Amino acid sequence: MWETTRKGLMVDGEQGVVVCRAARQVVESGVLTGDSSFAPGLRAWTADAADELFRRFVENFDESSDEFLVKLKRQIAEGSDEAIVLAAELLYLNVMPLSPATIGVNRKFEILGSVLSWVSFEVQVPEELAAAASPGYMKGGQAFLNYRWAQFAFLIRLTQLMVKLPLVERESALRDPWRFRDLAESVLTDYDGKSRARAQFHVLLFLLFPDVFAPVSVERNKQLIRDAFADRLAEPTGDLDRDIHAIRRRLEAEHGGRFSFYDEPWRSRWEPPPPPRPQKGWLVRGANVDGVNAIPQWLAGGFCSVSFSDIEQLPAGASRQQVKDAVAAGLPDAKQGTKDVAAGQLWRFLSGFQPGDLIATVDGDAVYVGTITGDAYYHDSAGRGLARRRSVEWNPIPISRQTLPEEAQAKLKTTMTIGELTSVIAALATNAGLEEQLTDEVLAQDETRELIVPALTQTFADDLLMPLSWLQETADLLTAKGQMIFYGPPGTGKTYLATKLGEALAGPDRTSLVQFHPSYGYEDFIEGFRPRLGENGMIGFDLVPGPFKNAVEAAEKEPDRPYVLVIDEINRANPAKVFGELYFLLEYRNHELTLQYSPDEPFKLPKNVFVIGTMNTIDRSVALIDAAMRRRFVFRALAPDRLPVDGLLRRWLEREKLPVLPALLLEEVNRRLNDPDRAVGPSYLMTPNVATRRGLELIWTAEILPLLEDQLYGKLNDIEAEFGLPVLLAALGRTLP
C-alpha cells in the first residue's frame, strides 16, 4: 500500500493499508447495511438522511466568505441526528488520509468533533477508525485544501446515488472498481458545471480499490506518469486509470513485486525538477504603464515588464546597492522614501523573481496567472516603458477576482507596482488551472486555507466551573468578530478566563499576554526604535517589533491555526494611540497598509489572529470608551450577579469540599454594595486559605476591605462598621471555624 511523501503522491507504507481498510469499512457498512460506523444502531446511510443532507448543504449553497465549519453549522446543525452523523462520516473520508503536513491529527478530530457535537446524544469516532486517521499518509494539493465544500458535496451526491440503488447493484459497485468509478464520475460535476472535487474523486477510488487505482490525487501527476511510462503499454486505451493500472502490473512483473512511482529510478522519469529556491508568487501591475494598458502585449508576447524609464539599464541579478545607486542617479530630485520604494520594487523584478515563480496581473475584474520562465532582460523595441522584461508563460484565460477567496482579493488591491502574493498565490493558480506547478512550500504558506477553530469541550467547561453554552457562545463571538473585551469589576476572573480561552482555542504556545499601562505606546506594542550599544561605544538604534507584530509573525507560520493575543487592562493605556493605524485593520482583516516605521513593507492583520482584552469597570471606564473601539470589539460582561460568574464561588467550594461560608459572605457584601460595577468578584476567595479562620481573616483585612475602602472613598466613613468580617458574620448568624 501507500503513503504520501509529496503533493498527491503515495508510496508503500503500512499506514496506507490501515487507512484503506478503515475507509472500506465505513463505506461498505454504510452503503450495504445503512448502519453508521460512528453511532452503532443508528441508520445514517439511508435515502432520507442523504436527501436531507443534499437539501441542507448542496441545494442550500452558502456563498458567504465564512469558514467551512461555520457555514456547515448554519446549514446542518438543526438537522436530524442521522443526517449529521452521515455528514461526519463523509468528512471522515475527506480528512483522514491527509498527512500532518496538510492538516494535523488534532485538527482532524476537531473538525469531526465539532460536527458530532451537533448530534443530540454523545457520539465519538470509534477507536480503531480514529487510529486509522492518525497520522494520515497523503499531502493534499491546493484543490484538496481549498475546495472542501465541493468535495463534501461530491461525497453527498455519490452517497445519495449509491444508497438508492437496489442491493444487488450496490454490492456489484463495491466489487467492481470500474463500475464504481463510473458511478462516482457521474456525480462529479458541481452546481455550475465545474468539477472541483477531482482530487477527492481520485483519493476515494484509491481508498476503496487500492490494488486497481494509483495512489495519486492530482490528475496532472497521473498524466505525467502515464506519459513517462508509455513504453510499458502494449495497447494504450486513452483511459488514464486503465493505462496506469497496466503500467503498474508490467513494472511489478519486471521488478518482482510492489513499487512506488516516487522511488528511484521511476521518480526522476516523470516528476518535474523542483525550482532552485522556495517558490514565490508575485503581482505585477500593467494596466496603466505610462498611460497605456500593457497587459494585452504581455499576454501576446509571453512576458511581463516594469517601466522605471528614468533609470538606466541594469543587469539581471543586480545587487541591492547597484539598484539603489541607479535609482539615486535616475531620480535625483525625488524624496528618499520614494527612492527607497522604487529601489525595492526594481530589485525584486531584476533579482527577487526566479524562474518557476508564479505571477499574476490584474485588468479590472480579470486576473491573469502565469509562470516566470526566465531571467530579466532588456528589450526596448516597444519603448523604454516595456523594456525591462521577464519571460512568462501566461494562462490566457482570465479568472474573475470576485471568485477568489477574500484574502486573495485583498492582496490584489495593493497599489504597489510589484507585490508579493506567495501567501495567496495557491488559490489564484488553482483557479487558473496551474495547481500542479505549486510546491509544498507555497502550499504550507497558503493563507486561504480553512481556519479551523476547535469546539470547546465539556471537560474545559467543567474545569472552569462555567456553562459550556456560555463559553462556546463567547468563542463563537470572538471568531466571528476577531476582537473581544471581557469587562467587569475586580476579582471576576477576566484575565484568567481570557488566557484559558485562548489556550483552548489556540494552544499554550500560540497564546501570549501583554499588559497595558498609562505609559504604553505604539512603539511598545507594534514596533519602534530601540537603542543599542554599537562599536566603539557609539549608541545606535534598531527597529524592534513589539508583541503585536510578533503575534502576527507567529500566526503567519500556520495560517490555518488560531493565535490569541491577550491584552490585560486594555483601558489603562490610550488604545487609539497604542494601535495607531492598526485600528483600521481590526475592522478590515487582510487589507494591507504600511506601518509608520516600515513604509516599504505592506502589513496586514491575518484572520487567524484573535485579540482578547480585559477591562476593569471599577472606574466606569466602559461607559467612556470611544465609539471606534466599541465598533471593533465585542464586549462580554463578567459580573458577580450574572452567568457565568454568578454562583462560581459556591461551585468551586463544593468541588474543593470546603465550607460554604465564604460564598455567603461575598453575597452579603455585594448585596450591601448594590452596584454590579463595584461588586467584589469571587476570585479573592477561591483559595484553600478560606478553609481556616486565620486565612479568611487575612484575606478580608488585606484584600477585600482595602478594595472596598478604595471603591467607597468619600462615600462611607467607617468601612469596618458596614463590611467588617464580624459585622457580616453577625448578620448571617455565622461564626468562624
Characterize the structure shown.
By secondary structure, this protein is α/β, with parallel strands linked by helices. It has four domains: 3-185, no CATH class; 281-445, Roll (ph1033 like fold), CATH 3.10.590; 458-637, P-loop containing nucleotide triphosphate hydrolases (Rossmann fold); 648-732, no CATH class. The strands form five sheets. Strands 3, 4, 5, 6, 7, 8 and 9 form a seven-stranded mixed beta sheet that branches. The chain has a five-stranded parallel beta sheet with strand order 11-14-17-10-18. 42% of the residues are buried.
Summarize this structure briefly.
By secondary structure, the chain is α/β, with parallel strands linked by helices. It is 45% helix and 13% strand.
Low-pLDDT stretches:
1-13
Shape: flat
Largest sheet: 7 strands, mixed
Gyration radius over CA? 31 Å
Count of discrete domains: 4
Question: Portion of residues in helices?
Answer: 40-55%
- Roughly how many Å apart are the termini? 70 Å
Mean pLDDT: 86
What fraction of residues sit in β-strands? 5-15%
Instruction: Report the structural category.
Output: alpha/beta
How many helical elements?
Answer: 34
Strand elements, count = 18
